[in-house]
Design goal:
- There is one protein chain.
- The protein is α+β, with helices and mostly antiparallel strands.
- The protein folds into two domains: 2-172, no CATH class; 181-319, Oxidoreductase, molybdopterin-binding domain (Sulfite Oxidase, Chain A, domain 2, Alpha-Beta Complex), CATH 3.90.420.10.
- It has eight helices and eleven strands.
- The strands form two sheets. Strands 1, 4, 5, 8, 9 and 10 form a six-stranded mixed sheet that branches.
- α4 (68-90) packs antiparallel against α5 (101-122).
- The longest helix is centred in the middle third of the chain and has 28 residues, at 134-161.
């Protein structure tokens, strides 16, 4: 019975960790601070359960049962994800080869989801009404309480020691290159040929091509905006961006949403009412954008995470579809 309860509690915590981690990427407001804290507490709650799970695992390994390899793979992925998360939070290590600790945390967590589903199918544990007893709920509260205490202790140690992790943003990202555009990392998953756009021949197509703008004409709008680019790769930078506000480019256009599309085909959709808060930037820090940061023009979307800041913008249109009618994360 104790082993069964531990497995159910671990499953519930893993689901909560996945949900809070997912939401932390979607939320761009001040609410993200509490989502990130909840994610950390749940993660440390998993650590709290480790001694009990270790006993169960030792007994299981002593017997030859179907799904043994899957169980071992799941354990390795979960441990790797938690260790990578702690390394990221402390800021001790910025990168492991070409990967950041946060990237490793996310990659191993995503892999653990697939392996975890297979593990559950191989060794199902069916919930019972007795699992919701007062005693079990109190135990669950104690686990989360221990996770919260661990989170507070870790935060206190980071502040007391002056560790780099104490200066993280509310999203968990670290400051990198604020005020110095050349210091910002280049986050790109596409082929380098995307960087070969010729500013002289490039044109922005607005409203299905009814209006077109060369990069020099966009720059002459002269609209400026100080905004923070917060990348889901674990870094952020506050910069002065210059270009053209979308409400000026879309003056008179009617629709439910704004669609900003890259030359790669990738796009993001925004509420039509947000046009005055969005900027199509041609310059950052007083200098033209670099190819890696979206030249000739990229979207600046304050309050949104980095994957909303569309690079290498080719077209801006309005649509009758609502802004939320799109995948929550980039799929192309």
């Amino acid at each position: 019975m104790a082993g069964r309860r531990t497995n159910l509690a671990l499953l519930a915590l893993l689901v909560l960790a996945f949900v809070t981690g997912l939401v932390s990427w979607l939320v761009g407001s001040a609410l993200v601070r509490w989502v990130v804290i909840a994610h950390g507490i749940v993660g440390l709650g998993i650590v709290v359960l480790a001694p009990w799970k270790r006993t169960i695992a030792r007994r299981g390994l002593a017997r030859r049962r179907p799904g043994r390899g899957t169980a071992i793979a799941l354990a390795v992925l979960i441990v790797s994800s938690i260790v990578a998360a702690i390394i990221h939070v402390t800021g001790i290590v910025r990168s492991v080869g070409t990967f950041s600790p946060l990237g490793i945390h996310v990659a191993t967590a995503v892999a653990a989801i697939a392996v975890g589903v297979a593990h559950i199918l191989q060794r199902p544990v069916r919930p019972r009404m007795t699992d919701l007893s007062r005693r079990n709920l109190l135990r669950s509260g104690a686990i989360l309480g221990a996770g919260a205490a661990g989170w507070l202790a870790l935060a206190g140690v980071l502040r007391a020691t002056g560790a780099r992790g104490a200066g993280r943003r509310m999203t968990g990202s670290f400051e990198t290159g604020s005020g110095v555009p050349t210091g910002m990392p280049v986050t790109q998953w596409l082929h380098d040929s995307v960087q070969e756009l010729d500013p002289a021949s490039w044109r922005l197509h607005v409203l299905d091509g009814a209006r077109t703008y060369p990069v020099d004409e966009l720059a002459r709008f002269g609209d400026t905006l100080r905004a923070t680019l917060d990348c889901t790769g674990g870094w952020f930078a506050e910069q002065e961006w210059r270009g053209a506000r979308l409400d000026r480019l879309l003056d008179g256009a009617v629709g439910e949403s704004i669609v900003v599309r890259s030359v790669t085909g990738y796009s993001r959709r925004f509420p039509r009412s947000d046009a005055s808060a969005l900027l199509l930037a041609t310059h950052v820090g007083g200098a033209p954008l670099s190819a890696g940061h979206g030249a000739p023009a990229r979207l600046v979307a304050p309050g949104h995470r980095g994957f909303w800041w569309v690079k290498w913008v080719a077209a801006i249109d309005v649509s009758d579809e609502p802004w939320w009618w799109q995948p929550p994360f980039p799929l192309t």
